[in-house]
Amino acid sequence: MVLSEQQLNLRGPPQTPVKNILDIPEQPTTPWVTPQSHFPSYPASLSVNSPIYVPPPYQCASCAKRPADENRSPMAGPSRKRIKPPAQVERTIQDKLDMFFDFIANELNWTYGDVLFHTSCSSYGKKSDSHFFHGRGTFTTAHILHNWLHHPFGRDGRLSPLMFTLDTPYINIKPVRPAITSFAAQIVAKQMAHEAEEAVKLSSGLHVSISSKDPQEMLVSWPNIGSATFEHTREVIKRLQPLTWSLVVNTAVRQKKDILTRKTRPPEIVATNIISIMNFSRSSQANLLPLATGILFFGSSVNFDIFRHHSHIGNVPAYSTILCAMRVLSNREGEDTLAHGLDLSTIGVIRLDNVQNYHRQRDPGIGRENKLNIGLAATYFEIEDVDISAFDLDNKRDRIAEGQRKTLTTEKLISYIDSSHLETVGMLQWINTLLHYIPELAYLKDHLSMLYSTRATKQQLPIKPTKIHPLASSSRNETVLTDFKAALHDFLGQIGQTPEKFKRQIIPIGGDGLTFDKMLMLKEFLQLEDNEFESLEIMEPLLEWWHTLWTDLSRLYGAHWGDDLATDPSSLGHSAAKIGRKKPSNLKKVDYYPNAQLAYLVLDVRMLDCWRIHYGSDDIFAYFTEKACKNELPTFEDLEISARQLYRNYISSRGQQRAMLGIQVNPACPNSSANIPIGSRWTEERQKPLVPPKQKKNGAAKPTDEFKGDQVLARSISFMRDTFLSREASIAMADGDVGRLYEVIKVMLFTFAGSTHTNYTAYLLETITKLEMECSDELKKALLHLSLVNLTGRKGRFSAGDYIQEYFNRLLEAVVHRKGSNYGDAFIRNVWSRNLAQVACLKNTWLGGVGLASHAARHTGAKTAAEVRILLAVYQETELHALRPGRILDADLYVDDFTKGFVKLSEGKLKKWIHKTTRARGLKNRNTIVSNLNVSDDEDDLLNDVLSSDQTDVPTHFGTMEFINGELVFTSVDMDEEAAQIIQLVDDEENGLYSDEDSEDLVDSTVDSGPEDI
């Protein structure tokens, strides 16, 4: 029996009577779906008519007729009484399932699989299908798949080898669980492969080539390798491989919260590295991170066997590829340097220094003698934020021609010193020491930093990274003027300046004291040459600051260390012995960083002892702890007043003079806070002088006046003043305030003149005279501006340019020493020299890029605290900073290099220097030429001084000074470790441990080595 759609609306439960109109002859039973219109491949036996088949329970042939109402009139119209529908029969889910399976089995003769397959392929009931496939129903595809995957009937399939298989197509797998899991695995694998193909395309940003003609391909360069490399690779992977990224990251952790919180083996770092290796394995062109990692290995001198291992497993390219990349990087660095040097709108400074190592032959013989290997290394620093017009050559020439140098006097040199500024920074340093060691006052550090950047500032440099370009090294000897001239021409040529074509402007070239002196000498000898280049008139010699401060520290140690017995509590040696520090092996050339740290520590403790005396306390720490409990801590204004008075009493020259004479600031009021407190009376006898006093004519010795001063206190004041100036210069240098640094340099001129380091007297006289008298204000500001560099671009990380050059020299010397080559050899010039700076910086920047802070070797707080306690007890016991009239320990009464220097300059040394430096100037423009330019030995005692300290060996320790949050922080650098890592690579290269077989065709290219420096 077949029903129409209208008739189907009269539905009712089984056994319900239906009108006679439904008595329609039965039709043969057939399936649902019609002709081959939708599925032409189905057999003809499955072809059916479109009407829907109604099962037998709904047929009405056997239904009884409704009985008529006997009380109803035959003539009455239809009854309007609403017929109540029969009650619905509630069926359970199981009843419905039984009916469904009975229907498809008995009526349709289908299996359950037939129903699922044909309904998923059929377009019948488009509306209901769309409703289901869009997930708008109560139960979605996900519910069905979940039930299938966990249905008990499929439990046997979980042990099948076809579970999650990628080898057998999922369409051929019949069990439910293996089929579903393999289907998921195979479509995920297909999507991951698609993502990987997108990631290794040229447009992805993961390609880097050593040499390529394709303009879209990124060429290897140092800006592409560093701290941003890892982050760039991670962002590309997350954008192009989101599925791969999610799977790897979630595989790397057990709990999702660890993705963002875990510090060790961060999941995102691990995932980036793993996916990058997979991409590199898929295509050797997607090599950005592997190539950068390989250069990091190269710079860290990884053992060659380790290198081969990581190359084989895909972490890095082949060693020969890395070596080829280093050559290309060197050449491109040279091209960038040349382009900047040729640009008329730019300016830069060259810093050079001598490099040397003693080469011992393993098998000496004729032609294989031990020798001193000497050379020169240089770096070109770009200078920004300066007025280019200030470097005009004609303006500088006119100012020199005015001859103002001849009018220089000692009084004028003194007038250049800003004494009020020195008192301001001295006061701030007193407060800074107190805030650093007293925790209760630490909240004032921000205000102190503000005063440093406002009240104390002179010429603060902008905080931005300095761009540097290492130059190819030379095997020339700077002590031989002809060699030195050739080396200068070589370095100038690398920035595009040649005798035929050069920029007619001043080119600053800096160096240590010896290099500075040789440049001045060359300019004097070559002044009669034809053009400005040949005469080196375009060269502006600069004295670099770090070697100057190093020499000043050596002067400080020589003046204040004291005797070996260390009986004088004011001597630096006495304090060092109390805390277990050893005497430097050479007081004329001390090891800079450890000895600077010791001197500044002793200065801090002596300042704390003076603060203790000022507040009348036996324990400075307990005093402020008690004040904090009572809420009676001094204000910053109170600290300023006290610090200014302490500066005048314990650091100024007048304070030292008053201590030597035994007088007070306010003699009328002995208890005045302006006075130094009177200590216990000195009762020890005065030691006999080394030189006996002169006798009178009658044979009686000349009576010695009673000494009323305090020699020990005066010496401590002298030490504190010299060390304060040294630390102020270091703070100003690290903070990037070159104006403050220059103020200290002007004072150091006099202290050098009063010491045995008189070579630096001439160097500083030349520097100060040039800046104050022979430069325009713009040029003076520009020359000071370029004297400091900041490689990191962070606050408090400025350094002197020669310090950076010295660091590079150490690494280069280690390479050349191990290699046994010359500094002008092609391998050194074209592989190491130009890349050494970037390789050295890569390790620190790379660690920062993966979230690792560089290791800092600093003195621990516990160790420093113990040393402070010991020294405070010594100073309190000896009453070092109290005035004890008559206290004297030896015949040398006075230690004041500043006063000695002023006297020496006033008594004729300044005039001799002026005569020496002016009589041979401007010979080209004179009518007559001086016949004899040599200076006799007795005419200028500057020439009889000891050899320049710059000719001696460099210090055995290296480190950095940083000014962070108002504190000067020392960080040691293990140069032995740095050098050992570098020379390990040289061993590998020298022994031929790599071969071209390991190289990859993609990046293998031939690069010219360039001319060798002869």
Question: Could you describe the 3D structure shown?
Answer:
- The chain has a five-stranded mixed β-sheet with strand order 3-2-1-4-5.
- The N terminus and C terminus are likely disordered.
- The protein starts with a helix and ends in a 24-residue tail after the last helix.
- The protein has a domain of 118 residues.
- Helix 5 crosses helix 6 and helix 16 crosses helix 22.
- The chain is mainly α and 1014 residues long.
- Helix content is 47%, strand content 6%.
- This is DUF6589 domain-containing protein.
- Pfam families: DUF6589.
- InterPro entries: DUF6589.
Brief overview, please?
With 1014 residues, the protein is mainly α.
Shape: elongated
List low-pLDDT spans.
1-64, 927-949, 990-1014
Q: Which value, in Å, is the CA radius of gyration?
A: 45 Å
The average pLDDT is 81
Work out the helicity level: 40-55%
Number of strands: 9
The biggest beta sheet, please? 5 strands, mixed
Strand content is 5-15%
Query: Helical stretch count?
Result: 35
What is the terminal-to-terminal distance?
111 Å
Content-based structural category: mainly alpha
| Arrangement of strands in the largest sheet | 3-2-1-4-5
Pfam family, one: DUF6589
Protein name: DUF6589 domain-containing protein
Organism: Hypholoma sublateritium (strain FD-334 SS-4)
Describe the secondary structure blueprint for this structure:
Elements: H1 5-8, H2 93-107, H3 112-121, H4 126-133, H5 141-150, H6 176-199, H7 227-240, H8 242-251, H9 258-261, H10 267-282, H11 288-299, H12 304-312, H13 319-342, E1 347-359, E2 371-383, H14 393-401, H15 410-415, H16 419-437, H17 445-454, E3 468-470, H18 481-494, E4 507-511, H19 513-525, E5 539-543, H20 545-560, H21 572-578, H22 592-615, H23 620-629, H24 636-650, H25 653-661, H26 711-735, H27 738-753, H28 759-773, H29 777-785, E6 788-789, E7 799-800, H30 801-819, H31 826-833, H32 836-849, H33 861-878, H34 897-918, E8 958-964, E9 967-973, H35 975-990
Parallel strand pairs: 1-4, 4-5
Antiparallel strand pairs: 1-2, 2-3, 6-7, 8-9
